[in-house]
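Q: Sequence in, structure out?
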Amino acid sequence: MSRTTGNRKQKSPVITLIGEGITEQYYFSHIRDLYGYRYTLKPYYFGTTSLKDMGRKISEVIEGGGVALCVFDADVSQRIAAEQEKLLILKKKYAKKKNVILCDSLPSVEYWFLLHYLNTNQHFNNAKAIERKLKTFIAKFTKTAVFLEKKKWVADLCSANKLELAISRAREFGMDGQAYSNIFKAFDKFRQ
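A: Exactly. Output:
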């Protein structure tokens, strides 16, 4: 008996998120639950604090036929020349690869959250400065598991079309200015 293979739908490559810390991990876990996006989110792929580790994990994902979506802060690369060089090498290496999406934010992921409320790409001295500004909108925001594990902060962050505003603002600013976020690229990929 022969099998029919002509009508099979091609399976999409699995998207695997690679990220720096618990803030990104909880945020994307809640986003997946709230919007039903499909991607792999495992603790193994988070806590990546060095670009070298990120590069190794990217290689693992793409060698397995998947798509590596990397979420990280670019502030260290702005302060340390060696890290800036590593970031440039990483960006150059994967610039034309459709199976690697780099979603960096300067200075930090909290700038992405701020874009849900403000249309700004002003200079922030560091991530702490953005956190202080973000607390004017999310009063109880803190980078602890006790706060981050609650889905409500992400639901509130995205309510009233604020997620779409953040995507639009980040795309419009691009990387011009004192702050930027490429996290909108993750949503572009999720929605394909």
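The longest strand covers residues 67-73.
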